[in-house]
Write a structure and sequence with these properties.
Blueprint (H helix, E strand, L loop, with lengths): L1 H9 L5 H21 L8 H13 L4
Helix pairs in contact: 1-2, 2-3
Amino acid sequence: MTLLVDTAAAAGAPDPEATAQCLWAGMDGLITLRQDRPSSPWLPLDRLVEALVRAHLCTGG
């Protein structure tokens, strides 16, 4: 968790602890859903992880 908090802070998150916890929860949910529903038409995991991080850190590009 410290790594996530430090990374969120370095990225300029206004509340690094909350951002880190949301990233953790989002990643956990993403992984759990992919394991539970393997036949769903999931996009590649790296694309979903990138979108999740961008959404929480409000980064562009």
